């Protein structure tokens, strides 16, 4: 905007303003109008704050290993409530053999 002078704010000042925003209960637009801060500036500060928080949260994570995914299974529930779980590796002929035996029961 012509004739508008940009105002520099320190990170401490920005943090205080964002804390006031949170406590105010106002919408971003209402707060920016009340404090005479461009809405885009306020939203930029909020994005940077969220980004800084998420980076800080990740920095404290220490990987200790991985959890392997359980192998896929087929689950068959019978009328009496019994459940049979068959590993996905037991497909094709193996599963046909198991089902054929169950039909005889």
List keywords for this structure.
mainly alpha, about 100 residues, 2 domains, two-stranded antiparallel ribbon, about 50% helix, about 10% strand
Characterize the structure shown.
- This protein is mainly alpha-helical and 105 residues long.
- The chain folds into two domains: 11-59; 73-104, no CATH class.
- The chain is built from four helices and two strands; from the N terminus they run αααββα.
- It has a two-stranded antiparallel ribbon.
- A hairpin with a 5-residue loop joins strand 1 and strand 2 (83-87).
- The model has no long low-confidence stretch (mean pLDDT 77).
Summary?
With 105 residues, the chain is mainly alpha-helical. The chain is built from 4 helices and 2 strands.
Q: In terms of topology, how is this protein built?
A:
Layout: H1 11-24, H2 28-35, H3 39-59, E1 73-77, E2 83-87, H4 93-104
Antiparallel strand pairs: 1-2
**SSE order:** HHHEEH
On the 0 to 100 scale, the average pLDDT is: 77
Helix content: 40-55%
Task: Characterize the quaternary organization of these chains.
Answer: single chain
State the separation between the terminal residues, measured CA to CA: 84 Å
| Order of adjacent strands in the largest pleated sheet | 1-2
Strand content: 5-15%
Molecular shape: rod-shaped
Q: Please give the largest β-sheet.
A: 2 strands, antiparallel
**Tally of helical runs:** 4
